[in-house]
Give the backbone structure.
Amino acid sequence: MLERYVKKILAARVYDVARTTPLQRLDGLSDRLGTNVLAKREDMQPVFSFKLRGSYNKMAGLTAEELKRGVVTASAGNHAQGVALSARELGCKAHIVMGRNTPSIKVNAVRRLGGHVILHGDTYDEASKHADALAEEKGLTYVHPYDDPDVIAGQGTVGMEMLNQHGGDLDAIFVPVGGGGLISGIAAYVKYLRPDVQVIGVESEGSACLSAALAAGKRVRLPYDALDLFADGISVAQIGKETFKICRKYVDDVVTVSTDEICAAIKDLYDDMRSIAEPAGAVSIAGMKKYVEAKGPLGTAIAVVSGANVNFDRLRHISERAEVGEHREVILGVTIPEASGSFRKFCRTLGKRSVTEFNYRRSGPEAAHVFVGAQVSAPEDSRQLIADLEGAGYAVADMTLNETAKLHVRHMVGGRGTGETSELLYRFEFPERPGALMKFLNGLGSRWNITLFHYRNHGAAWGRVLVGFEGRRTDSASLEAFLERIGYRFWEESSNAAYDLFLR
């Protein structure tokens, strides 16, 4: 298998359009990790992603008749741009099916490259099924984003370049994993020539389809309603069939990372390179950091920075979460006495730590709640701060990993219910497209009275919404029956500690 792929990689025609991207040493991260860290700069490709390599290699091998009929694919971003640019260079028509909630920056980029954009459905699966139907109906060639030997070979040229550029000692290569095309191509080439080099995949915790497949010993499909869409470039429900054949034999390890850890990695790359990676492009750095923290420093390691197609609006969210992901910020909900001098005493207990956020809300005649963020140097420092506060007699709730607190409540402290009405709290993800809110409200009808509504747009395909409904615990089943019919993902948060402290 490896020899066949190496031959295909060596013969790949990617350099008609793709660039040989540099390896760049990350000095700051190297010093912190005690490891010689090199970044493979695939964010410097013409479409700001490695995806161009695989799509062009596939399309360059089509016959003149196939190119004349045209190609079709389904993609929310990077692959779509790669197919559109490849089609322009090869003189064929590219039909790109994208979900209706795809951010406009990605839709416009594909159109600028000459792609015919078809907006269909709200999910990748819906878009993919429509693309399959168009291929059958119109005789178009389907260009798969990852599960195709020619696409895998095109992506494998990244591995070929890395070994050509770094001929010395090399311990490990960290690679983002979505459907598996990039890591399969890299593993096939690297393991054939340098079997001593570890190839380590990195996945987002909310879309770890390779980890699930390796654990089960076969490909499994993650439920779509459980997929985390933050790192949308690698948010895939099932590893590819062909890619899994390679990964299960030649990938040495897989690391999963959280949203906060990805945000911290984006900041690391900015600090060292003054460039901004997309979330999927930075997961390799996040995984390397986590791996080194768990197993100790490496000699030399390469992380593939796979893309830079990030919406500007998302940077606000990324900057908020980066410090937590680096274990440099702890977020706490603290109850203090409502008495003269208590606020000063609380601040004195915090000590000389830098406060990153401070929200105060009086909750009654005897107590007040403080939502506070503080800079820390390590997880041990977080635990010490909590111990100091509890030792001073304060009730402390650690909200550093509380999604509702970080996404919503920190921006809402100061608004509370009257306490006279029972309330049920739910967190939603809405598709970012016109009509999404009205669909939600129409689905509820007049049965449910909304008592709280908070929406945050992070520049992604999905908006984050926090909603309160008038109702009692016994009403939950009836309410959720309505919510299931609407079709948006939701989580009940009625018992969330942040809600209890600051909004109830």
About this structure: The first helix runs from residue 2 to 10. Residues 51-142 form a domain with the Rossmann fold fold (CATH 3.40.50.1100). The chain has four domains: 2-49+149-322, 51-142, 327-401, 415-502.
